[in-house]
Amino acid sequence: GKSTLINRLLGEERHLVHDAPGTTMDPVDSRITVNDRNYVLVDTAGVRKKRKISDPLEQFVSLRAIRNIERCHVCLLVIDGTIGPTDQDARLAGLVEDRGRGLIILVNKWDLVKDLEDVNSQSIEDQMENKLIHASWAPHLFMSALTGKACNKIFPLVEEVFKECNKRISTSELNRWLLATVDAHTPPQRHHRPVRLYYATQTRVRPPTFAIFSNTPEGIKSPYKRYLMNRLRDAYDFGGAPIRIHMKRRR
Questions:
Q1: What is the pLDDT of residues 117-131, one digit of tens each?
Q2: Stated pTM of the model
Q3: DSSP alpha helices (H): ranges in 166-217?
Q4: Burial 221-242 (b: 16+ CB within 10 A, else e)
Q5: Which of 97, 126, 228, 242 has its CA 20 to 30 A from that of 207?
Q6: pLDDT of the residue at 26
């Protein structure tokens, strides 16, 4: 399925770009131009399930595939639409999130789903909601590498996700957002003392990273941090981009 997808992306209406002198590329990388925009497709060369990795060569291939994720700006996680997301897909999605890369989920083999009684778009989305809950921010496409269904939507979606990964929010806008967010739901107290959030600023992109200053940063636990992340996405989208929030003590 994955090799078929790569061949599809390298197919019609796309021009293969030869390596420029002096550039270093992996042998499985492919430079292409789509709509006057240059891309490099980095093939992970396959990641097998852990129980199937036995000999040192297989371990090397899997480690190399994981390292290739770090070379990408946007990762395309291809899952089998006839069986839905697996534990391995969940681990890979978690790895992409951990490395701070953009993520798009491609539900492949959708041409075969019409012959399956218990599989449809809603059932697959329900499975992703349960299995890939840590990547709920990633957009997904139901597509078929064999027939070309929705393949023309992949590069435009890559552009959208890359744009979201590079999005910056001004400090003044962020602090208006923070004031409204805290007014709607204040942080829990710590040792019977209020936890106050004073101001926020964006410190970097790819991934979008924010620093929020507080009198008691250790008082902001995971549930409230998730609340802040969800409100950030409600206000500014960041679709396909992982978000980082660091709590800092105000000096």
A1: 889 999 999 999 999
A2: 0.86
A3: 171-184
A4: eeebeeebbebbbeebebbbbb
A5: 126
A6: 63
Query: From CA 189, how far away is CA 224, in angstroms rounded?
Result: 12
Quote the CA–CA distance of 201 and 211 in Å, as a whole number: 5
How far apart (Å, rounded) are the C-alpha atoms in residues 167 and 109? 33
Q: What residues contact residue 128 under an 8 Å CB cut-off, 6+ apart?
A: 84, 85, 105, 136, 140
Residue 77's closest CA among 102, 98, 52?
A: 102
pLDDT in tens, 53-109: 455 544 554 576 678 888 899 999 999 999 999 988 998 899 899 999 999 999 999
Contact indicator for 5, 77 with CB cutoff of 8 Å: no
Residues 6+ positions from 245 with CB-CB distance below 8 Å = 209, 210, 211, 212, 225, 228, 229, 232
Q: In this structure, which amino acid lies at residue 159?
A: E
